[in-house]
Design a protein that fits this description.
Layout: H1 7-12, H2 20-27, E1 31-35, H3 40-49, E2 55-60, H4 63-72, E3 79-84, H5 90-101, E4 109-112, H6 129-156, E5 160-166, H7 178-199, E6 204-210, H8 232-244, E7 249-250, H9 255-264, H10 266-279
Parallel strand pairs: 1-2, 1-4, 2-3, 4-5, 5-6, 6-7
Bound molecules: NADP nicotinamide-adenine-dinucleotide phosphate.
NADP nicotinamide-adenine-dinucleotide phosphate binds near residues 61, 87 and 232.
Keywords: Oxidoreductase
Pfam families: adh_short
GO molecular function: oxidoreductase activity
Amino acid sequence: MLPKYSFLEHLLFPPTKVHQKKLRQASQQKTILITGASYGIGEASARLLAAYDVHLILVARTASKLTALKKSLEDQTAQISIYPTDLTQVEEVEALLLALKKLPNGLDVLISNAGHSIQRPIQKSLERFHDFERTMAINYFAPVRLFLGLMPLLEKRKGHMMNISAINVLLLPAPHWAAYQASKTAFDQWFRSVAIEMESYGVSSTSLYLPLVRTRMIAPTKAYQNVPAMSPEHVARLIAKSLYRPKRTWMPWWSIFARLGSFFCRGLWEFLVPKFLQKS
Ligand SMILES: NC(=O)c1ccc[n+]([C@@H]2O[C@H](COP(=O)([O-])OP(=O)(O)OC[C@H]3O[C@@H](n4cnc5c(N)ncnc54)[C@H](OP(=O)(O)O)[C@@H]3O)[C@@H](O)[C@H]2O)c1
């Protein structure tokens, strides 16, 4: 069951139907790694895919949350393995890679979803260089390290790499989001560059450019409480669909207008936004 959308959300995020038979066929006996599986989009994806004959490898820091998730999915079809790991810690990632390289059936799909966002005006960031380090650590260096370690496995299985990205990386940068946007954009560029190379080895790829998604990530931002947002369960359906109908990119239908606006209206944006910020 998907959570209820408002009328506007229905328009902005029309329903995504998952063809169960196609998904069953495409995912059968596949090993699928989801990072950031303890909450939000990762958790919703694990819950959806647990109904299929797959081996789910769930990675995140919160061991208790992963254990509870695994327990709640015990009566489902999927085999579930959990690996509590802080993806920003080199030793922990090395241990994870070692374990994954021993998987009997290799790895078919890597869904790079773990992430962290920070919204903070630059004037409040002057003593907070660590904000920029920690967003780069989890949103850029962590997935780079993981993909480097797992690429040979994906290549062997002619697998699929997926990046859970944000629509913002394709649009004009918004104020207060420098740390998050820069780190997500860095990984988007890395991923797209590598995806082209890996396609020549038979590895396919999908970048999902998501709008706001109602998870704990946006909960602290008051301004987002009444703004239209997708549900994590809806995003899970998009992820599931990408498994049987791999598309290089997914973005909301209206993103074409947002992208055209970004292309033609940079001057206007950079003129108006400072004035708005001054007033507010
Ligand atoms: N929510 C949105 O509006 C939105 C929009 C566009 C794109 N996205 C992207 O969607 C992805 C998922 O976000 P979400 O909205 O589902 O957020 P979320 O509910 O906060 O989930 C983030 C996940 O990442 C994991 N994680 C964070 N730091 C980690 C670390 N150091 N090592 C391992 N795992 C870590 C968290 O688990 P632990 O805390 O247990 O480690 C959690 O499972 C992110 O990449 C985000 O950038 C979100």
